[in-house]
Amino acid sequence: MTRIVAVLVALLAGMQTAALDPGVSAVFTRYWRFTTSDVADLRKGRVVKHSLETPSGEIAVAGAIRVNAAPSAFVDAVRNIVEFKKNPDVLQIGRFSDPPQLDDMRGLSVDNADFDAASCRVNDCGVRLPADFISRLPGEVDVKAPDAQERAAQWFKQALFSDVNAYWSGTPGRFLSYDDDEKPIRPIDEFNALIKNAPAMGSLSPALRDHLASFPANRMPGAEDLLYWSKEKFGIEPFITVTHVVIACPSESLCLVASKDVYSSRYIDASLALSLTSLDAADARAFYLVYVNQSRSSSLKGRLSGLRKSIAERRARGSLEETLKTLKRRFESR
Question: What percentage of residues in the chain have a pLDDT greater than 90?
C-alpha cells in the first residue's frame, strides 16, 4: 500500500511539473481540449495537435510544443515579422508603417494571376472587393492600354490601402462587403463570429479580445501592434493578405500574440490566431509554445462541405506540426 501511494505521489508531482501557468492550464484543457497525456508528451518534447469542434464554414486547430529556450525568443522573433514569416510559401512580405503608407507596398507585385482587371465584374471577380470599387474599375483602368497590368496593380494597391488605412485609423472606408461572387461576404461580421467562438481568448485576456474586436477604439494598455502584408502560396493561385498582429504580456511568465486577418484577396473570409508562451514552472530555461488558429471560408459550406472541411483540417494539422517543429529547432539552436 505504501508503495502504491508513493507511486501516485510521484505521478502527481510529474503532472505538476509538466503543468502550464495556472491561468493557462484551465484554458488548455477546457477550451483547447488538451489531455493529461498531451501534457506528458509535451514534457518529452513532442508536438501535440488536434482539430477543435467548430460550426459550419469554420475550421480550428490547436497545437503545442515545449521549447528549451527563453520565452522572449518567440516574442522578439515576432517583432521582426518580415524575417519571422519567411518560408517558401511566403512569396513576398512587408511591414506597414505606423500610420500605414501606400509606399509600404512597393515590394508587392500584383500580376494578372493576382488581379485580372479585365475580367472583374460585380458578383464575378477573381479577388475580394466591394461592389462600389468593382463598379468604378472600368472607368479608372484602361484594360486595353499597353501598360494595363501596371495600371491595374496600382489601382488594386490604392484600393487595398484605403481599406488598411481606414482600419488602422478607425475612419470610414473599410471594405464592408466582398462582392466578387453571387453571395456577398461581410468580413467584419465573419470576424465577429470567429471571436465569439473563441472563449479562450476572453478567459486569458478580455482586454486583448476587446482590442481586436473593436480596434482601434479599445486599445489594450501595454499592447504592441504591427501590421504587415504578404503574398502567399495557397490553392490554385497565390493570395494577397494583410494581417494585424498584437503582442501582449500580462505577466513575466506569460505572453500572448494574436493575429487577425484584415484582408485576404482569396479563400479566407476571416481568421484569428492566438499564440502564447508560458514559462515552464519546473525549468525557467524552457517554455511552452501554444498555437490556435480559427478560419472561416465560404468554400467550407454547401455541397460536400464535410469532405472539404476534413481535408482542410488534416492539412492544417500537418502544417501546424511542421511549423512548431521548425520553431523549436530555430530557437533551440541559438
Answer: 76
Q: Which three cell numbers stand for residue 50?
A: 488536434
Between CA 237 and CA 250 the distance in angstroms is 40
Classified as helix, coil or strand, 98 is coil
Which residue's entry shows cell 499564440?
A: 275
Residues whose CB is less than 8 angstroms from the CB of residue 15 and which lie 6 or more positions away in sequence, other chains included: 36, 39, 40
Question: In whole angstroms, how large is the CA radius of gyration of the chain?
Answer: 22
Q: How far apart (Å, rounded) are the C-alpha atoms in residues 9 and 89?
A: 48
Q: Measured between alpha carbons, how far is 68 from 154 in angstroms, rounded to an integer?
A: 46
DSSP state of 47: -
Q: Which residue has the higher pLDDT, 88 or 9?
A: 88
Q: What count of other Cβ atoms lies within 10 Å of the Cβ of residue 6? A: 10
Residue 75 one-letter amino acid: V
Burial class (CB in 10 A: 0-12, 13-18, 19+), 334: exposed
**What is the spatial distance between Cα 266 and Cα 12, in angstroms, rounded to a whole number?**
49
Q: Which fold has domain 19-97+181-332?
A: Alpha-D-Glucose-1,6-Bisphosphate; Chain A, domain 4 (3.30.530)
Q: How far apart are CA 222 and CA 211, in angstroms?
A: 11
Q: How confident is the model at residue 5 (pLDDT cuts 50, 70, 90)?
A: very low
Residue closest to 156 by CA, chosen among 195, 199, 120: 120
| pTM of the entire predicted model | 0.91
Return the H-helix or E-strand segment holding 187.
Answer: helix 187-196
Quick one: how far is CA 178 from the chain centroid?
20
Cα–Cα distance for residue pair 33/230, rounded to 1 Å: 32
Among 87, 32, 56, smallest CA distance to 190 is for: 56
Mean pLDDT of 315-334: 92
**How far, in Å, are 128, 291, 293 from residue 320 at the CA level?**
26, 8, 9
User: What whole-number distance in Å separates Cα of residue 178 and Cα of residue 185?
Assistant: 5
Query: What is the side-by-side strand order in the sheet with 239-251?
Result: 48-51, 58-67, 287-296, 270-279, 254-264, 239-251, 224-232, 90-95
Q: Give the cell for residue 314.
A: 488534416
